[in-house]
Amino acid sequence: MEVKIEQSWKSALAGEFSKPYFESLVRYLHQEKASGARIFPPGSQIFRAFDLTPVDKVKVVILGQDPYHGIGQAHGLSFSVPDGVPAPPSLKNIFKEIETDLGVRMSGYPNLENWARQGVLLLNAVLTVRSGEAASHSKIGWQEFTDAVIKYISDNCDGVVFMLWGNFARTKAELIDRSRHIVLEAAHPSPLARGAFFGCRHFSRANAALTASGRTPIDWRL
Hints:
Blueprint: H1 7-12, H2 14-17, H3 20-34, E1 39-40, H4 48-52, E2 60-64, H5 89-102, H6 113-117, E3 120-124, E4 129-130, H7 142-156, E5 161-165, H8 166-170, E6 182-186, H9 202-212
Parallel strand pairs: 2-3, 2-5, 5-6
Antiparallel strand pairs: 1-4
């Protein structure tokens, strides 16, 4: 099956694309589209996180659950929205934590492509969603695929910092070899967590870990 994805990821995940679950997933998406359902993000952006962050560039993984389901929001990167779209509440809280943690001023610019280009894989566990219906594609096979992504990084990369926010993301910790990687866990940045995310200091901790292993830290400012 031909999948349009960045070449290093295409090679790394080649075995997944021919598995029955992935073929079923693709059929499901085609059926959704044929039925007139509106799917986010647009087809060309489903694998945007992989296109911007090749395998050998991955330094940090920030795991989200599924894409934003509002019109114009999802563009293939967890927590990020395109230029000109207001920052969602969770992203605003992420920016507040960065300002407190690093003592910098964030612009509020909600497009996180700059992080992705520095090596931050902004990965949602589920890569598509039906318009207006949160978690509508959570059981069609995407999680098997993204679990394989996490496992591949764990087995084939070294010193990656995984940021797992909220109970859902934290269930993925079992896929990660903690002897090779740094796993940072915290509450979800959603306002529903009542501020429990604040004070986690994941951004300074990630940079300290990268610096300690001789890698260039992330410039989190936007």
